[in-house]
Amino acid sequence: MKIGIIVHSQTDHTYSVAEKLKEKLSAAGHSVNIERITPVDSKQMDPKKVQIEKLPDLSAYEALVFAAPVQAFNVSPVMKAYLGQLPSLSNKKVACFVTKALPLDSTGGNQAISLMKSTFESKGGTVIGTGIIHWSGGREKKIADLVEQFSKLF
Q: Domain span at residue 8?
């Protein structure tokens, strides 16, 4: 299966999780590409004003994984801006995860996942999995668990 991992990662923490997922999915025989969502101005925090350098072509993928950090108790402004520009996801399997510093899901993780999930569904995608990784204690196990869980989705 051809899988695209679409990532916004400001500090490379979220990107590092995407790389581990790519390794696992590739080892299972999938063709996997990571595509970064990069803003023109990394200091712009208003999703309505964020401009993306280059929008990935999602038509080449059968399945997609979206990943972003939680910022200000929601998905990062860059990913939020990107979600507003998503093309149709009809007939695509979609999964998503977020990374965050604060340990409780109620500090933005659930809200970020909810926004992402509803956006994907509104674009016709079939959401098959979600996850939240906290950077507090036991991070490596949380990452390994998410990678294992997501590798079984495709």
A: 2-151
